[in-house]
Amino acid sequence: MIDFARSLKRASSPDEMTQVELVNLIQHGGTDDWRWLYGKIRQSSEWRARVRRALRQVDPVFVGSRRLWETLLEEYNDQDGCDLRVSKWWLEDEPSGI
Fold it and tell me: What are the extents of the domains in the chain?
């Protein structure tokens, strides 16, 4: 597993994280990474908007991570014009037992 938290601490400014790095953190981050990111979205509408944009790029394989962050963002009403509704195209052929 990639330790994003360690790399963020070494970075000169985690606030300058690229969109790709943010998507990777959402998809592959560990508990410390997600705590750090949750702290950011609780404090800043800019970070909430960044996470909303990143969620559009999350690989459908990581649907669980994506749904978690969508749920966490639902408590904030500053949508910034971003639609959190996810295209369910990858779920159309999903077996009914899941």
Answer: 1-7+30-77
Helix ranges (H only) for the chain are 4-10, 19-28, 31-43, 45-55, 63-73
The alpha carbons of the chain give a radius of gyration, in whole angstroms, of 14
Which 3 state secondary structure label does DSSP give 89?
helix
Tell me the pLDDT tens digit for each residue of 27-72.
Answer: 998 899 999 999 999 999 999 999 999 999 999 899 899 999 998 8
Q: Residues with Cβ < 8 Å from 22, sequence gap 6 or more?
A: 50, 51, 54
Position 65, amino acid:
S
- Work out the number of other CB atoms within 10 angstroms of the CB of residue 23: 19
